Automatic annotation (TrEMBL):
Pfam families: Myb_DNA-binding. InterPro entries: Homeodomain-like_sf, Myb_dom, SANT/Myb. This is Uncharacterized protein. Residues 17-71 form the Myb-like domain. Residues 1-22 are annotated as: Disordered. The lineage of its organism: Eukaryota, Viridiplantae, Chlorophyta, Pyramimonadophyceae, Pyramimonadales. It comes from Cymbomonas tetramitiformis. Residues 17-75 form the HTH myb-type domain.
Length: 105
């Protein structure tokens, strides 16, 4: 059982951690992410973040997660992402890069 001092310390540390608001990705950001991965490769999220198109509040983890979701959808039968209409040619580029990465492993 925690003392009231420990509980109050835990609450104050939680107060400092503000939860980020969800910001939907724009088509321009997604295109910049795909272009960045084509240029520098998968896993170079910090370099890709330097793009002026991707919003400054995006983190390296955001880019990694978005890429993972893009590849999942690109290889699915439906190729539909919630909230934004992504052109099929963009999914084709994602597939090409992901296939090239698998081939090099």
């Amino acid at each position: 059982m925690r003392t009231s001092e420990e509980m109050s310390a835990a609450e104050s540390s939680n107060d400092r951690k503000e939860r980020r608001r969800h910001s939907p990705w724009t088509l321009e950001e997604i295109e910049a992410l795909v272009h960045g991965v084509e240029e520098v490769g998968i896993g170079k999220w910090k370099q890709i973040l330097k793009s002026k198109v991707i919003q400054p509040y995006r983190s390296e983890v955001d880019l990694k997660d978005k890429w993972r979701n893009l590849t999942k959808v690109a290889f699915s039968k439906t190729m539909v992402m919630r909230g934004i209409k992504i052109p099929p040619e963009l999914f084709a580029r994602v597939k090409r890069v992901a296939d090239a990465e698998k081939a090099s492993m």
